[in-house]
Design a protein that fits this description.
72% of the residues lie in helices and 0% in strands. By secondary structure, the protein is mostly helical. The longest helix is centred in the C-terminal third of the chain and has 26 residues, at 241-266.
């Protein structure tokens, strides 16, 4: 990103600040590697293994500064036309016209909101279980998925159906608890854009694949939440179906590549639960 912003980011208002943040992250990682050796203590290992979680939100928020690094606007119209040709209807509009119900909304948004606990829950659980090898491998697949997703935000900027179809929807998505919670999170932390792909779906699938591989029962329960999350991306008007498909595809490719490259070196023997 330092190279990209230096070469192409002349129009980015906070370019120098973004470059400074990325340079600071490099320094942070070097410092952690130098001053927190694996053999020191469990606290040292916690820093080494869990610090990437602190980078995800800042990296995501920064994508809003360079969403139009290559294009002058969002490309939703093109994607909407493709989905209409494939499905015969725009799925997000079909849900609006035919499927919305307050309790269905709540169940689906419960699954969607579970995403906010998936990453800390998974990595803290693996750390407490001392499955450090799984953490190393899973973080690699997770970060590849995030980086690929954030790169596509620039290469194919999509604002998402809640913006693109804002004047077309006939009904509000209502729900007393979980829908309200998700809307609050979106209002405070979401970036307009970054629709393609759905990094939520992608990262959730990465974690699901690791759980299915090592803790099958927990993985099957997790798969139910991930399915609901993927449906919620479209149901809640945050993503198009294409965003979800691409996000999941990236996740599967990233995880399989990591397993092939790192599996015998880092991944602990599978367990059943």
């Amino acid at each position: 990103m330092i190279v990209v912003l230096t070469l192409f980011g002349q129009e980015v208002g906070d370019r120098q600040w973004n470059i400074a943040v990325y340079a600071g992250v490099i320094m942070l990682v070097v410092t952690i590697v130098r001053w927190f050796p694996r053999e020191n203590s469990r606290l040292s290992m916690a820093v080494r293994l869990l610090y990437p979680a602190l980078l995800l939100t800042p990296f995501y928020r920064m994508t809003g500064d360079y969403m139009f690094l290559l294009f002058d606007g969002f490309l939703d119209t093109q994607l909407v036309q493709i989905e209409k040709a494939v499905f015969g209807v725009n799925p997000t509009l079909y849900v609006d016209r035919h499927l919305l119900h307050v309790w269905a909304n709540e169940v689906i948004h419960f699954c969607y909101s579970s995403y906010y606990l998936m990453i800390p829950g998974f990595y803290l659980a693996m750390f407490l279980l001392r499955r450090d090898a799984i953490i190393v491998s899973a973080w690699t697949a997770t970060m590849i998925t995030f980086i690929a997703s954030y790169s596509l935000f620039i290469l194919y900027p999509i604002e998402g159906p809640r913006w693109h179809f804002a004047e077309v929807y006939e009904h509000a998505v209502k729900g007393p608890v979980f829908r309200q919670f998700v809307e609050m999170v979106m209002a405070k932390g979401a970036v307009r854009g970054g629709g393609m792909p759905s990094s939520h779906s992608g990262v959730a699938v990465v974690l699901m694949m690791y759980l299915l591989r090592h803790y099958r029962t927990a993985g099957l329960v997790f798969a139910v939440l991930v399915t609901g999350l993927a449906v919620g991306c479209v149901w809640g008007r945050f993503h198009y179906v294409s965003d979800v498909i691409v996000g999941i595809t990236i996740a599967v490719i990233a995880t399989v590549l990591v397993w092939r490259r790192m599996g015998t070196r880092y991944t602990d023997p599978p367990e059943s639960a």
